[in-house]
């Protein structure tokens, strides 16, 4: 299995190389050269398997010979053993033909643990073999950073630096990043928005000298291995509702487009997905783009679903690459135009996108109203991101096709919004109860590339 860049100018890499690299050298994102397909029998055979066994089968065709079967199975086993639910991604019913896929039973209570725990173990195995050391730098709107710090804390041959927007993550998210005491993990509060964090991260990757000097690696949602890990739960949930013999649809609370893009991979592998619905909060560049064809950045407006407060949706580039017939030069041109504010998607590409995706958005009031309504009629307490998904799913769904809405975080990660909606403050699960008592460790930094680079050079332990 080979991986190519969405901008067509970077070297073709193996799975392991693409995973260790993150962003391609031409600024693009790695995608598989071809998508492997599963027959109906292959999909039917997933029924009744453990999450780990299904994960092995779904991901195996993408990793080539990077790891032998025994090693890959044990990597997957270690990745998910810290989850608090034996099913890993349990499915709950909300209404007739509307289901909630609970992706928040991992160690940091958000779906990002699915990918990050796996990638931590993959890096560890790969670096142990090569003897190389790497510096992982990540940008986060909250959940990626905590998931990365949790996944890599104490692992060998790796330092992790996480840039998060100062004052713009929830207290639980911040504490999950600042309280682990392993020497190799570093939380950095950047004076700016998430998009600034993401821009500085891209700058570091595009500074090839720095990149080579510190052995820079990325585990943001642009990393292909993360997308791959997320393909698995589309299969396990669809199969438990009757796939391959029955179609299902998914609604996905979306920011950087990694999670929903994984759904489109599952679909191309042969999973019978009817609709993939993009659900955004008031930062709705994706919904506007799907509606009008204009992808134009706007100011980020902080919301109660902060993990979706973005204007530039990095993984959307992968969807554009496919919509433009895998024309890397066309994608490079669009990304050039994006630097000065945006671009118009061609008619043909827009039609291709609409074949795969629907879209909708939820305002702040609609999000709160959904949390409160769903708690009242089902007893299920949603986090604000999941509520954005449920609101859009209810609006868009065909009652005849089962709809699965992804619940991306535990409500206790966003207690203020949930309390405002329901009157009750959701408590942390017992295994995290001491979070508010642990000492914090954080470095504040200016939104400045050179300053960040020296900070990283100085603090690296490897
Ligand atoms: C990251 C995140 C999202 C958005 O996921 P993308 O893959 O960036 O689209 C939604 N909800 C929560 C809770 C998240 O942490």
TrEMBL record:
Native source organism of the sequence: Pseudooceanicola nanhaiensis
Family in the record: Belongs to the threonine synthase family.
Cofactor(s) annotated in UniProt: pyridoxal 5'-phosphate
Protein's pathway: Amino-acid biosynthesis; L-threonine biosynthesis; L-threonine from L-aspartate: step 5/5
Stored SUPFAM superfamilies: Tryptophan synthase beta subunit-like PLP-dependent enzymes (SSF53686)
PANTHER family on file: THREONINE SYNTHASE FAMILY MEMBER, THREONINE SYNTHASE-LIKE 2
Name this protein carries in UniProt: Threonine synthase
Highest taxon of the lineage: Bacteria
Reactions it catalyzes: O-phospho-L-homoserine + H2O = L-threonine + phosphate
Modified residues (N6-(pyridoxal phosphate)lysine): 112
GO molecular function: pyridoxal phosphate binding; threonine synthase activity
Domain Threonine synthase N-terminal: 2-80
Keywords: Amino-acid biosynthesis, Lyase, Pyridoxal phosphate, Threonine biosynthesis
Enzyme class: lyase
Transmembrane segments: none
InterPro entries, alphabetized: Ser/Thr_deHydtase_PyrdxlP-BS, Thr_synth_N, Thr_synth_N_sf, Thr_synthase-like, Threonine_Synthase, TrpB-like_PALP, TrpB-like_PALP_sf
GO BP annotations listed: threonine biosynthetic process
The EC number(s) this enzyme carries: 4.2.3.1
């Amino acid at each position: 299995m080979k991986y190519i860049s969405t901008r067509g100018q970077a070297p073709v890499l193996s799975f392991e190389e693409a995973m260790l690299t993150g962003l391609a050298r031409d600024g693009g994102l790695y995608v598989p050269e071809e998508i492997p397909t599963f027959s109906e029998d292959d999909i039917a055979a997933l029924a009744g398997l453990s999450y780990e066994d299904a994960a092995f089968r779904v991901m195996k065709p993408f990793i080539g010979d990077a790891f032998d079967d025994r090693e890959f199975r044990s990597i997957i086993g270690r990745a998910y053993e810290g989850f608090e639910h034996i099913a890993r991604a349990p499915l709950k019913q909300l209404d007739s033909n509307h289901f909630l896929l609970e992706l928040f039973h991992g160690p940091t209570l958000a779906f990002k643990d699915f990918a990050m725990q796996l990638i931590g173990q993959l890096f560890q195995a790969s670096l142990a073999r090569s003897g190389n050391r790497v510096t992982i730098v990540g940008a986060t709107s909250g959940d990626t950073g905590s998931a990365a710090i949790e996944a890599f804390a104490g692992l060998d041959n790796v330092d992790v630096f996480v840039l998060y927007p100062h004052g713009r993550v929830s207290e639980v998210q911040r504490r999950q990043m600042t309280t682990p005491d392993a020497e190799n993990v570093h939380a950095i509060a950047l004076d700016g928005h998430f998009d600034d964090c993401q821009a500085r991260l891209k700058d570091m990757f595009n500074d090839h000298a720095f990149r080579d000097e510190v052995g820079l690696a990325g585990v943001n949602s642009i990393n292909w291995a993360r997308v791959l890990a997320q393909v698995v739960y589309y299969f396990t949930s669809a199969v438990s509702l009757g796939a391959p013999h029955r179609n299902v649809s998914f609604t996905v609370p979306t920011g950087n487009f990694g999670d929903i893009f994984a759904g489109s991979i599952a679909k191309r592998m042969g999973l019978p997905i009817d609709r993939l619905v993009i659900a955004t909060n008031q930062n709705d560049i994706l919904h506007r783009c799907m509606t009008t064809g204009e992808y134009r950045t706007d100011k980020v407006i902080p919301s109660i679903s902060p993990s979706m407060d973005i204007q530039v949706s990095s993984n959307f580039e992968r969807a554009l690459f496919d919509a433009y017939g895998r024309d890397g030069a066309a994608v490079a041109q669009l990304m050039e135009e994006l630097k000065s504010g945006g671009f118009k998607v061609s008619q043909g590409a827009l039609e291709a996108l609409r074949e795969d995706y629907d879209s909708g958005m939820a305002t702040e009031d609609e999000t709160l109203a959904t949390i409160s309504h769903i708690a009242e009629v089902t007893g299920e307490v949603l986090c604000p991101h999941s509520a954005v998904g449920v609101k859009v799913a209810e609006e868009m769904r065909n009652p005849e096709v089962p709809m699965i809405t992804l619940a991306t975080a535990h409500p206790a990660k966003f207690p203020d919004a949930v309390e405002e909606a329901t009157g009750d403050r959701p408590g942390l699960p017992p295994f995290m109860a001491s979070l508010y008592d642990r000492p914090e460790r954080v470095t504040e930094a200016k939104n400045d590339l050179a300053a960040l680079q020296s900070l990283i050079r100085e603090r690296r332990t490897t």
